[in-house]
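>> received
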Amino acid sequence: MPFRAILITKTDAGQKADFATLDESDLMDGDVTVDVSHSSVNFKDGLAVTGKAPIARRFPLIPGIDFAGTVRSSTHPRWKAGDQVVLNGYGVGEGHHGGFSEVARVNGDWLVPVPKGWTAADCMSVGVAGYTAMLCVMALEEQGVKPTDGDILVTGAAGGVGTTAIVILARLGYRVIASTGRLSEEPFLKSLGAAGVIDRNEFNGPVKPLAKTRWAGAIDSVGSVTLANVISQINPEGTVAACGLAQGMDLPTNVAPFILRGVKLVGINSVSTPMPRRLQVWDRLVKDLDLSKLHALTTHVKLDDVPKIAADIVEGKVKGRVVVDIG
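>> returned
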């Protein structure tokens, strides 16, 4: 039965994303076929759809790095028709057809069950961004960062990772300071649990080997000069969880914070996280993420809206999470 999807193609003239009508023979190999009900628009999706960065590694490609829905058919031992499932990462929407489609076929080893009491829409309100935020929070905890140690900085605070991280950290008792280029969003960020909001330009100046200490820990989705400045301001034995590159892939820092203050920089890889860790993350999300606040930071759109939202998210015009209602 035909289904609708966004399809990225590439010619000598460049890359473009259009809507297409496909059938199951157009899907890639996999042992589970899913009727997709929801996906979400993450920063990486914006880069893929707009072609602003070489996210797509094959053509043609259905973008969308996450999705949730109902199993249509399965030859995988863990899944049967009717199961509710969610997928984040594993190269879906990069090298394997992804979630901006009414139907997806994937390896059953990549799927996790929709948590009890949650809906597919709830899972995509979390999406890769929220899942990454929880990985970051867990990294801070595992490095011994406690609420009593001092303020936690969240950069890119109005985005998907940032907003979800604020909600989780605040619920766990941390005092969160949100860094954003959109100071008009201060009331929104404080409603999520931020104790304070500062201008991102505070982190755009020249990077000092060691700056005045300000933060017990930080979650950074920006990278580049911002991350370098944040590292220089971390308290002795503090930790930065780095998960993004919205400003750039470079890191103009030095060894002083690491060897003179014992600062720890932990990289967060949400694409190929081992399954036991993934299940742990989802357990923590169910326990420590306030669904009412999650819904407050989530906007719902249709598949037809994705190209515009993709452009907006790359330009920094999107706040919170964007769920795509597909099914």
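>> The two ends are 14 Å apart (CA to CA).
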